[in-house]
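Supplementary Methods S3. Complex input for the ME8-bound model.
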Amino acid sequence: MASYYITTPIYYVNDVPHIGHAYTTIAADVAARFKRLAGYDVFFLTGTDEHGVNIARVAERHQVSPQAWTDKIAAEFQTLWRRLNISNDDFIRTTEPRHAKVVQTIFTQLYERGAIYKGTYEGWYCAPCESYYAETELGPNNTCPVHTNRPVEWTAEESYLFRLSQYRDWLLEYIEAHPGVLEPDGPRSEVISLLRSGLKDIAVSRTTFTWGIPVPFDPKHVIYVWIDALTNYITAAGYLDYPARFARYWPANVHLVGKEIVRFHAVIWPIILHAAGIALPKQTFAHGWLTFGGQKFSKSLGTVLDPYALAKEIAAESGAEVDVAVDAIRYFLLREIPFGADGDYSKPALIHRFNADLANDYGNLLNRTLPLVERHFEGRVPARGPEQGGDAALRETAARTAGRLDGLIDRLDFRGALEAIWEILGAANVYLDREAPWREIGAGNPQRGGTVLYNTLEAARTATVLLSPWLPTATQRAWDQLGLSGSPASQRLPDAARWGGLAAGALVRPGQPIFPRIDTKAAAKSDGQTTTRGNAVSQITIDEFKKVELRIAEILEAKPVAGADKLLELRIKVGDETRTLAAGIAQYYKPADLVGRKIVVVANLQPRKVRGVESQGMLLAASHGDQVILLTPERDVPSGASVS
Ligand code: ME8
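Predicted complex, serialized as C-alpha cells:
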C-alpha cells in the first residue's frame, strides 16, 4: 500500500490557537482523510513548537514554569483539533524526550561533518530582554523596542553557526531541477531569488537562555529554534527509534506551511537533511494568509477568531449540530479561498456558503427525495430500472468527478475538488427537476419514479463519500439517512464511487435537515458577538468609534501597587484635571522612567476600582508578542489635546 505523509507546521505555544492555525490544520486533515479514502497508508502529523526565549518569557509573565505553560497551551491545541474533527495520527511536542534525542543526534552529526562550527554571533542586544533585535525592530537612536529609550548594544556571543553558505549552489540547482518540491509559483520564485542573492551562515545556538535542548557536547549552549523545530518531522516519522516506520513514511509527501515560513522549510530544512545524509521531503506547499478586513489573523497583530466559538455561533443560528457547524467552517475555508492565495474571512460569506451550498445543494437533495421514498416505497430504496432520459449522463458525471479527485488533492486544489463534487450535486438537482419522479408516480409509473429516485440518491451517496474528508459529521448523518451501514470514511475508492453502491430495499431513515438554513437577518444582528476573543475583530461604525474620547495626558507620578506586581498606579494630568489610573505595565516600565511622559488615554471610560486603585480612564499601549509598548505622541503636544 502506498504511503502518504503530510505535516502541518508545529505551532508556537505563546498563545492559544486561532483560525489561522485551524486553516492549515483543516487543509492537512482534508488531504489526509481523502488519501485514506483513496486507500493510502496515511501518516498525518501536527504538533507544537515549545522552546525558545519568547515562550520562556510568556511563561514568566504568567508566573508559571515554561513546562507548565507549554503543557497548558499544547492541551488547548489538542482540544481544538479534537473539536474540529482533526484526524492527526500523532501530535508532537518539541519538549518530548523522543524529540530531544533526534535533535541532539542531528546537531552532533552536522557538527562532525563540518556543517556546524563554533564561531560568534553578533547583533543588537538588550540585556534586560536577554534578546537580540534586528536593526529594523529598533527604536530611534538604536533603542530597545521594549525598554523605550534604553540603547541596545552591539554584542558578540559565542555561538554555533550553520554553514548555509556552502550549500547555496547545491540547493539552487536542486530547486531549479525539481520544480515540484516547492509550490506554488510565488513562494518558489521568492526562495529562488533569495538563493540567488546568496546565503549567510546562521547562528543555531544561544547561551543567553536555557529553555531549549542543550548542545550535547557543549551544554552551556541551547539549540536555537529552527533546527529544533524542523527536525520534528523526522522525529515523529520514527527516525532513530523506528527504522521500519521511518522507511515507510519518509520522505514526507508534503509539508504544508503558511507562506511566511516557507524560507525555513525550503532553505534551512533541505540543507539540514542533505548535510545529514537524509532524503529530502517531496514537497513544501506554502499557502496564503487568512485575513479579516484585509488584515492577517494573527496573535501578535491582535486579530484572532476562535473557530470553535464560531462553530457554536453558527450552530445556534442555524439549529444544526455543533459538529455539523464545524463541518461548515471546514468546507467554507477550503471552498472560498483558492489554496495558495490570501483570502478574507467574512461571516456573511460563510453564511452564504452554508445556505446556498450545504443547505440547498447538498442537504436539500436528501430532503426532497427521502420523504418520497417513505411515502411511495414504504421507506425502502427503490430498485432501478433500465437507463433512460438523463440517467446515463448523471452516472457519467459522478464517475468523471470521482476519477479526478485524487489528482486534485495531490495538487492540494481543494477548491477545484469541491467544485468537481458540486458538479455531481448540481447535475443531480437538475436531473431530479427534469425527471420529476413525483410526476411519474402520479401518472401511474412508479417504476420509473423509483429509478429516478434511486439515481438521485446514488448521486447523493457518491457525493457523500467524496465529501466526507471535508464534512466528516454531516456526511455520516447523510449516510445514515440513506439507509447505509458503516461510515463514509471507511469506504475505499474507486470501489465506493462505482455506480450502484446504494442497496435497493434498504430502509432509509430521513431525519431533521442536516443543514437547516440560517435566517440571514437574525444572523446579521449577532454577527461577531461571540466569535472574537481578546481584541475584537468585529467592525464598528464611525459613530461608535466617536463615542470614545481619546486625549493626551502627562504622567505626573508613578508607583507600584502593593500586592499587584503587574500594576502601576499613575497620577496623570489631562488638561487642567488630575486623575489616577491603574495600568498593567509594571513588568514593562519602571515607575521612574514614566514620569514626565506624554501618553494617550481613554478619557471617558467609566471609573472603576482595580486592586483598590480608583482608575479614571485607561492608557493605550501596543502589544506585540510578549512586549507592551506605550503609545506616545510623535512630537510634544500639551496634555488634554484630543486624539482622533
Ligand atoms: O511559525 N493565515 O508557528 P506559528 C493562514 N513554530 N495561516 C496562518 C495564519 C493566517 N492568518 N496564522 C497562522 C511557527 N497560520 C513555527 C513553525 S514549523 C517547523 C515551525 C498558520 O504558531 C500557518 O500555517 O507562528 C503559519 O505558517 C503557522 O500557522 C504559523 O504558526
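Confidence is low (pLDDT under 50) at residues 528-538. Residues 347-376 form the longest helix (30 residues).
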